[in-house]
Every structure is written in C-alpha cells, then in structure tokens.
Design goal:
The protein has 18 helices and six strands. The protein is mainly alpha-helical. The strands form two sheets. It has a three-stranded antiparallel beta sheet with strand order 1-2-3. A hairpin with a 5-residue loop joins strand 2 and strand 3. The longest helix is centred in the middle third of the chain and has 27 residues. The protein is globular and about 80 Å long. S-citryldethia Coenzyme A (SDX) binds next to helix 17. S-citryldethia Coenzyme A binds next to helix 17.
Amino acid sequence: MSENVKIVFEGKTYEFPVIVGTEGETAIDISNLRQMTGLITLDPGYANTGSCSSSITFMDGEKGILRYRGIPVEQLAEHSSFIETAYLLINDRLPAKEELNQVSVLFNDQSLVHEDMQNFYNNFPRASHPMGILSSMVNALRSFYPELQIIEEEINITVTRLLSKVRTMAAMSHKISRGHKVVYPRPDYKYCANFLHMMFDTPVRPYQINETLVKALEVFWILHADHEQNCSTSTVRLVGSGRVNLYAAISAGIAALWGPLHGGANQAVIEMLTDIQNDGGNYQRAIDRAKDKKDSFRLMGFGHRVYKAYDPRAKILKKMCDNVLDELYITDPLLDLAKKLEEAALTDDYFIEHNLYPNVDFYSGIILRAMGIPTNMFTVMFAIGRLPGWIAQWKESVDDPKWKLGRPRQIYTGPKETRYIPIDER
Ligand code: SDX
C-alpha cells in the first residue's frame, strides 16, 4: 500500500499521507489540503468523506458485516443483553459480572423522572409525535439536573441518567398521550422488562411479562445500538463539538433520526405495507413506482448508503419475526406481504443493479407491532436502542486530543459583489 498520494494542481505536485484502518479501510489525510493548495473538497452527503477515526463499530457494506468493538453483532444478539452491549460500546470492553450488577442498580436508582416533567408532557398537544416530545424532553433534562463541577462524575452520572430515564420518558409519553396514568418502573425488573411494564401495565389489567417479547426487545435494541457515522450519530458529534452539554447533543441526534430516510423509515415501512395491503396487496405496483424516476416514491426499508449487500441486522430481525409471531401465536398479514415484496424486489433487475436490499427498518416494525408498540413510537424505539452508540461516539470525540469544532467549508455560487438598492429605486 503506498504511503501517500500525489495531487498535481496548476503545475505543482502535492503529497498527502494515506491512512489505513484496522480492517484495511484507506483514506487520504487532507487535514492540510487548503493550507497547502488553496483547494477544498466537495462531497454532498459525505458519501466519500471520513469525519473521524473510530474504534467503536466496524461495518463492511460489501460483505454485510457489523461488529461492535470487534464482536460480530450476531453473537451479541444471541448471547448478550442490551445493557451489556451498551456497556461494551461506551467502555470499550465487556463488563465483569459485578460491574453489570452495579450498572443495573444504578439504572434502577436513575429510572424515575422528575415529577415536574409531567407538566411538560401534559402541555404537548395530544397528537404530538413522540419523537418531537422525546427530543424536547431530553433537552429539558439539563434544566432539571444542573452540571456537576467534576467532569468525570458529570459524564458518568449523565450517561447513566440518560440511558435509564430515556426508557421511562418514552413510556410516559405513550401513557400520557392516551390520557392514562403514568406507570412507574419496578426495582425488581431489568431494563427491557421494565420498559414493557411501564408501557403496558394498567390498574385494571396488570401487564404479564412475556420472556419471548423481552428477548425480542433485547435483540431489537442490541441491533440498533450503533452504526458508525450515520446521519444522527454525525449530528451528535457535530453538535457536541461546540462543547454543548450531552443532553443537547443527544436531543439533536433524536431530531436527526426522526427523518423517514433515516430512523423514521421503520414507521414509513409499516405505513407503506398498510397502503399496499389496502391496495389489494399489489406489491408489484410499489416496486414499479420505486423504479419510476418520475415518481418520488421510494421502497421504504430498502437500500443503504453503506450496505450494498443484505443488512446483517435485517437478516436477524426477519428470522426473529417468524419466531416471535409463532411463539405468540400471532399472524400478521403485513409480514407475509413484506416477504413477498422482498422476494419480488430481490429478483428485479433494478434492485439488483442498484444493490438495494432490506435494511434494519424493513422487518423491525413487524416485531414492534407484535409487542403492541404503536406505529408512531417505532422511531422512539430506534432512538432508545441507538442511545448507547450516540453516547459512545460522543465520548470518543471528547477523549480525542485533536477534538475540534466541526465546521465544513463550501463552494460559493451566489452573485459577485453588488450594491444595496434603496426601496424607492426597486
Ligand atoms: C437507516 O447510515 C446508516 O447507517 C443508517 C442506519 C443506521 O443504523 O443508522 O442504517 C439506519 O437509516 C437505514 C435506512 C432507512 N431508510 C430507508 O429505508 C428509506 C429508503 N431508502 C432510501 O431512501 C435510500 O436507500 C437511502 C437514503 C437509505 C440511501 O440512499 P443513498 O445512499 O443516498 O443513495 P441514493 O439516494 O443516491 O440512491 C442511489 C440509487 C438512486 O437511483 P439512481 O438515481 O442512481 O438511478 O438507488 C436508488 C436511487 O433512486 N434508490 C432507491 C432506493 N434507495 C436508493 N430506489 C428505490 N427505492 C429505494 N429505497
């Protein structure tokens, strides 16, 4: 591998170092490009641009590989828990048994939300989208928990508070949006079981914890926990680079995730499948529309900026759909429809040529439906899962000695200098 690249510009030759990552990913270090040549690069959507070096998550888009701190996501989905995976991502190692127990105790201590926050919830219009509520409420946490002076302590308590409370806050918005009493977390329940308890327990019908659904939720959140420099993670890093508090950076990440091209796709997939079902199950029409350049319709849950093979998370979720529905004796016509749509798309030349495969969002909604999660909360479920990854990536940037304010450049295409024209002369 050559150690540098040469750029010849206006008769001069410039050399830039080549950086090679652990798995052979190769980049040109252009940190001094403008200073040396006066040039900048232009890369809309950053498809060819690395924003940082990171040791947290490795993805190979061509081979459909995903590893957290080197561990294949398939092994974590099978053997780990969401809290253990969160610990791995944030602390760069798996916890010892005692450490994992301590984390569970800390999460219980931090699982309640300040009662005054309920006033905020009660004043959102009932039809408010839970992602807008979650982003606002996470930002509001700074007002309720002022900054500690000791940075290390501040970071640790904020991380625990966020991971524990985000689950309670999500369940609260669900209950309050229905005009139901808020259900408090139970100290004898672990993370995922407690979430389902807070979501679905009612005074008239106590919620019975179903271990199949608890395991499905563990796997769902493990699969969503991190995904290197995606849109929302890059947002958390960029907002955090201004040295704002972590709550504000995470709130920005939640807002970025909300979009239907990103985390909002899981809700859009179910809406798309429901539309197809209402159209008599005509999934071929959806495929034809997705291929029609004059039609802005996209096959939601298909395609990915990095994966040009089957998203490894979608493979696990697809199998989990069958297991969960079978174990709960549930049939969901949308699952059968999704499988037919996938089969038709994967044999269609357009999808083959464009390397379009199901991504994490294509099957995830089926599992969330089986849990009883309302469709408008699907992206909130994604956000809870992604929180450890956002925190780990933010922490990695804070710990980077070269941590700089993120500030991209541009190519200006506006008018050359003009003069102000007084209103009477216009
Ligand atoms: C997530 O980055 C991450 O890691 C994200 C994520 C994570 O864990 O954080 O994995 C989570 O966001 C998954 C993606 C969820 N979004 C969707 O399912 C929405 C539908 N998918 C697309 O909109 C699209 O595939 C994107 C946005 C996901 C990726 O698009 P790119 O990389 O910007 O590619 P593109 O839009 O330039 O498309 C390239 C070509 C185009 O055709 P041409 O003009 O070259 O002929 O592929 C076509 C597109 O029209 N294409 C699709 C398509 N996706 C891409 N055509 C039809 N249906 C689609 N879904």
